[in-house]
Specification:
alpha/beta; 8 helices; Spore Coat Polysaccharide Biosynthesis Protein SpsA, Chain A; 35% helix
Length: 236
Amino acid sequence: MPAPPPNNPSNGLTGIVLGGGKSRRLGLAQSKLLIHIGGKLVLARVADTLKKYCSELILVVRPGQEDDVPDLGIALNMHIVTDTEPHLGPIAAIHAGLSASTTNLSFVVAGDHPFVSGTLVNAMAATATVDGTDNASAVVPRSNGILNPLHAIYPRNQWLPYLTHSLNEGEVSPRRLIEKAAAADYPPVTIFTDEEIERSDPQRISLMDIDTPENLTAARKILDARRFTPRNHSLQ
């Protein structure tokens, strides 16, 4: 049975993790969310970070998803929902997550981002409400010229109707969705620049995913490097 959503959110931010991907580019028989990096499952890494900053965690999976991702989500005390049917893909997943959220602001992230930065999430959430909660904006990072809509803040009240319309229109690209909103100046979108990202994440690894074998190798090297300290270090 899916875990029920927690009651009485305390800080007004929901964490929505997208877990329905099939890991085709990585060439694995299992979901990349079930890979061990640094001795810990990728989904557990994401959830353990977000639970410190979010009042609830939602995991969005595919309808009929038969791998161990939904069970792991339940074990991590995440509320499990499926893509908004009959649609599939990341826009349907974002729509399902926002529909299930009990807060207006949500941080949406693909489940294969092992280095999610709580500091960056907080900075983006603060930017979303700089003009007040009634005029909240989506906040989408743009790193090296590339939009990252699967690592972004979305206000439920402003964006759920827009996502519903986009699904009904057959839109499938999250980046194109953001570009259309920015061009129309509605729903509100704020772009988080490289400079703003670096203030919270100087190494700029929070946006790193593990889509390819090269990405996975790089992520493991980062964590391996963190395990060791110089033998001649000083504690003074």
